[in-house]
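Progress note, project year one: complex with nicotinamide-adenine-dinucleotide.
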Amino acid sequence: MEIKRICCIGAGYVGGPTMAVIAQKCPHIKVTVVDLNEKRIAAWNDVNTDNIPVYEPGLSDVVAAARGRNLFFSTEVDKAIAEADMIFISVNTPTKTYGVGKGMAADLKYIELCARQIARVAKTDKIVVEKSTLPVRTASAIKDILDHTGNGVQFQILSNPEFLAEGTAVQDLFAPDRVLIGGDTTPEGQKAIQALVDIYANWVPKDRILTTNVWSSELSKLTANAFLAQRVSSINAMSELCEKTGADVNEVARAIGMDSRIGPKFLKSSVGFGGSCFQKDILNLVYIAKSYGLNEVADYWEQVIIMNDHQKRRFAKNIISTLYNTVSGKKITFLGWAFKKDTNDTRESAAIYVADDLLSEQAHLSVYDPKVTEEQILADLNYLDTRSETENTKGIIVENNPYAACEGAHAIAVLTEWDEFKEYDWQKIYDSMLKPAFVFDGRNLLDKKALEKIGFVYQSIGS
Ligand code: NAD
Ligand code: UGA
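Model obtained:
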């Protein structure tokens, strides 16, 4: 079966970049990305591709190359579904904020709405692809909904989780470590798998395209994120022990990373992992394990989150205790707000929680991030609902110049590892600050020796 038209529901951080790359690599396929959010679609269609809603290095060029040729962004969801041979569901699956499973389970209401809409609109056979990260066995719920439409259309459901990381999305999509496709073991299921394999085979080497049953594919995605996050929590746990013992976490990470069984990646100690997925997916895994009565399994993975919360909290606590046990009325500058460099995404960023703790201690925060807007920063704080919006607005100033952000500050906290922070004129920053001038480097990014030579009191994580 040759796929000629693809529809992707959800034009977010996954739907936008993945479909742009499929369109660029497969000029013979028409790809339409749809979303209910009109503002987001308008931004994807902005004549100036620098204004697309997702900031990712290299993405605007990919979009510019394919948009209007075989890549389209639209709010006409029904039309795109009706036309398509293959439909990717790439909507958000956040942690539930209400009812049973509140704070743990994935909220599947958007997924179900998509399934119902496909069921209502489809008049021809379709392959439906789960691109969103979903709890294991979601495909059976989607199938249940699709198989009860009564209009005789045949649906095949595939699981094709996305492994891209933000900040390197284009690179990850161009050269993925692997592409995972799960489908039914029936002949129809195998045909559907092959149709999707053929799409990726336009640029991904065949030995990197892995096919499994649906449940393995769904569960592998949660497992991969749990393992990655677990490495960060493990090294962060060691960072606290390093601080007590005189060991240096960077040296420890290097020493263990050279063991080929451990490997060097994902061993960077930090103020804590953020992003929209690690926490959400682990909580979901914990919830699933509990729902099967696997309490030890659930507790094991929950510890990764507990450790991460501790790491964020102790960073804030250390700032307070180092600044003579009070930050009330003191200006503290945040360099960085995004959850990692090279993205404008702030979801679950450690910066939000550290800021919240410091604001509760009446600090005056000044924030500079090269890609995050003031509107977003305030929205992130307001979402926590710790204090009124007016109080948040009073407690925080967002600057678009890093030097202005640091002027007159008691301390600087580095929350994101943006490369440009390394290039600043740190002498100039020092001269403009109150003394003693403190730097709390939550990313172990800056040059300790150089900063100490200037006169800063410099503290990093894990040494
Ligand atoms: P996102 O919030 O950026 O985008 C989701 C989009 O779906 C939104 O624009 C929303 O308006 C739209 N949407 C929701 N319901 C809709 C409906 N019924 N019809 C049309 N549009 C609808 O989310 P994201 O970061 O792209 O994540 C999407 C999924 O991919 C999640 O399950 C996530 O876990 C997974 N994932 C994300 C990443 C990542 O780096 N962000 C990586 C791998 C997997
Ligand atoms: C992560 C995974 O890496 C992707 O494979 C996955 O597709 C994605 O989640 C998802 O499902 O959403 P992402 O969250 O975009 O990608 O970024 P990561 O590079 O994994 O970083 C996550 C967080 O961990 C960031 O806050 C980062 O700063 C932190 N981190 C990462 C560390 O503190 N130390 C490290 O060594 C690595």
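The longest helix spans residues 214-245.
Residues 5-212 form a domain with the Rossmann fold fold (CATH 3.40.50.720).
No further modelling is planned for this target in the current period.
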